[in-house]
Design a protein that fits this description.
The protein has 570 residues and is an alpha+beta fold. The protein contains 17 helices and 21 strands. The chain folds into three domains: 2-193 and 350-413, 3-Layer(bba) Sandwich (FAD/NAD(P)-binding domain); 242-343, Succinate dehydrogenase/fumarate reductase flavoprotein, catalytic domain (Flavocytochrome C3, Chain A, domain 1), CATH 3.90.700.10; 429-568, Up-down Bundle (Methane Monooxygenase Hydroxylase, Chain G, domain 1), CATH 1.20.58. Helix content is 36%, strand content 20%. It is globular.
């Protein structure tokens, strides 16, 4: 195969391999060079670090910051309250302790942060501050390029180098050159972000990639961890964003940045009927209004004057210009008609939600040599970009300790050849299916049977069992994939990874027999919370030989493993 495809195998060695050049990955790389300048650091990035990840389009606020009236303790209580008590206190608290420190650091790197007349950061809410962040990602990229860091852009990570349950590097392939990479490392930090594209999106056709979460975040880091046998957590907690209809623009800019009222079609503020208003409750209440025939629902900014409308447009230009274009196309001002809102499709993320690797306070995974930071790290929702910075920093601090004591590990040539064959097989096999065809089938199954938009995000056992069966059929058709070039090869591996993640999601949804998080995990068979029985984490380990998801339950507070493994047979 190597000769026929004319693929060059590039073998490299480094001290620290960082997979993913987003917020967590770049911050980790800079910190590594600052702490230990002689450390060899390599970033493997699927796109280009200047425009990749969740910051690619910019943002207009730092959403995790300890304002003068807040403390790390109050931040932890807020996160726990918003997630019905099931979060990793230790992870959230260690993030909260350093949020302001990393914010001030990126300001020194060049991030424009808005300030009041007293030169204090301009607060948007109790836990966020306003910024001009349209160039946020290039600012980060420019900073890491100042360091002696090897950056491998346009290289898709495919699997870890694993020996006896320990990670010693990763494989990857270039989508611009005929190169297959084998990178040995004394420590690896996974910072690839979460997963979109598992469920059918709001928009179809040419607009299908108009999503809340980046469409190019396909969950490779999750899938690599699952295949390697890492313990994962909380995949049943999908994150579903409340967003502006069609353009999927953020509603926080309207609710927090413009004091918008959330109203139904009759102009009624329907949130007034709720004693406790959390992020998922805002979405749940909207779904309820539509179900009761009082929709559509809106965010109303009719109180804004001309200056306020102009300010709102500027805020959206920092991260979501599509809504500004929509206003222009309709020839309306933001205050002339209410802004319709809707729920997005579900995403699997560890930043707004808490799906991801099960990690220690040092951000180590259950596989020695592998650390996780940012959206790919589980257990700590609402970390946002500054939380990703903190986790990257913590991961590096501990990875450097391991690097100091760890010797190099040789790679078995058989493993290299096996992964080479797996990666390039879609270019060689006589298949007939395009990656997009499998992706559409996957999204349809997950939408209809695993709690997507069409089912109001609700699940039940009967439908989940259908999803489980259909996913197995889709997985079997992976052997029929056929691609013509390296870019299509990337798309093939993205859909393969998404199918595996979907299997884990369904297994987790089947196991949690209650409704812990409104909308995010709404089980019609068990519509109520059950704190006594289910005040715990649902974790899993994948048995790749038998292709089965094994569930582990862990207590919320002492985090020990409880009960027996539950086998979800695939």
């Amino acid at each position: 195969m190597e000769k026929e495809l004319d693929i060059e195998i590039i073998k490299k060695e480094t001290d620290l391999l960082i997979i993913g050049g987003g917020a967590a990955g770049i911050f980790a790389a800079v910190k590594a060079k600052e702490m230990k300048p002689e450390c060899e650091v390599t970033i493997m990035e699927k796109s280009n670090i200047k425009w990749s990840g969740c910051l690619a389009a910019g943002i207009n606020a730092i959403n995790a910051y300890i304002t003068p009236d807040e403390t790390p303790e109050s931040f932890l209580e807020y996160v726990k309250n918003d997630n019905n008590g099931v979060v990793r206190d230790d992870l959230v608290y260690t993030i909260a302790q350093q949020l302001n420190q990393v914010t001030e650091e990126v300001e020194r790197w060049g991030l424009p942060i808005k300030k009041d007349e007293n030169d204090n950061y301009l607060a948007r809410s109790r836990r966020s501050i306003e910024i001009n962040g349209d160039e946020f990602k290039p600012i980060l990229a420019n900073r890491v390029e100042e360091e002696d860091v090897e950056i491998l852009n346009r290289v898709v990570a495919t699997n870890y180098l694993v020996e006896n349950g320990e990670v010693y590097g990763a494989f990857g392939f270039s989508i611009r050159e005929n190169r297959f990479y084998v990178i040995r490392a004394k420590a690896v930090i996974c910072a690839t972000g979460g997963a979109s594209g598992i469920y059918k999106p709001n928009n179809e056709g040419g607009a299908k990639h108009k999503t809340w979460y980046p469409p190019f975040n396909a969950g490779a880091g999750y899938a690599m961890g699952v295949r390697a046998g890492a313990e994962m957590t909380s995949f049943e907690m999908r994150f579903i964003a409340l967003r502006v209809k069609d353009v999927i623009a953020p509603t926080g800019t309207l609710a927090l940045g413009a004091d918008a009222n959330q109203i139904n079609a009759y102009g009624e503020n329907y949130l007034k009927d709720y004693d406790r208003i959390t992020t998922p409750i805002r979405l749940q209440a909207t779904l309820r209004e539509n179900k009761l025939g009082r929709g559509p629902c809106y965010l109303d900014v009719s109180h804004l004057d001309e200056e306020g409308c102009e300010g709102l447009r500027k805020k959206f230009l920092n991260m979501s210009p599509s809504i500004v274009l929509q206003w222009a196309d309709r020839e309306v001002e933001p205050n002339e008609e209410p802004i319709e809102i809707t729920g997005s499709e579900p995403y699997i993320v560890g930043g707004h939600g808490q799906a991801g690797y099960w990690i220690g306070v040092d951000r180590s995974t259950t596989l020695k040599g592998l650390y996780a930071a940012g959206d790919v790290a589980g257990g700590a929702p609402k970390k946002y970009v500054t939380g990703a910075f903190v986790e990257g920093k913590i991961a590096v601090e501990n990875a450097l300790k391991l690097i100091k004591e760890r010797s190099e590990k040789k790679v078995d040539e058989r493993f290299i050849w096996q992964e080479f064959q797996r990666v390039y097989e879609p270019l060689q096999q006589p298949g007939i299916l395009k990656p997009q065809e499998l992706e559409i089938r996957l999204q349809k199954v997950m939408d209809e049977y695993a709690g997507g938009i069409s089912s109001g995000y609700q699940v039940n056992r009967k439908k989940l069992l259908i999803a489980k069966k259909r996913l197995k059929q889709i997985e079997a058709d992976v052997e029929r994939l056929k691609v013509e070039n390296l870019h299509q090869l990337m798309a093939a591996h993205e859909v393969v990874d998404r199918i595996l993640i979907a299997k884990v999601v369904v297994a987790h949804l089947l196991h949690r027999k209650e409704t812990r998080w409104p909308v995010y995990q709404a089980n019609l068979d068990f519509p109520e919370q059950n704190n006594q029985e289910w005040f715990k984490f649902v974790n899993s380990v994948y048995d790749s030989k038998r292709e089965k998801v094994l569930i582990k339950e862990r207590k919320c507070h002492d985090l020990e493993e409880v009960g027996v493994q539950y086998e979800c047979a695939y």
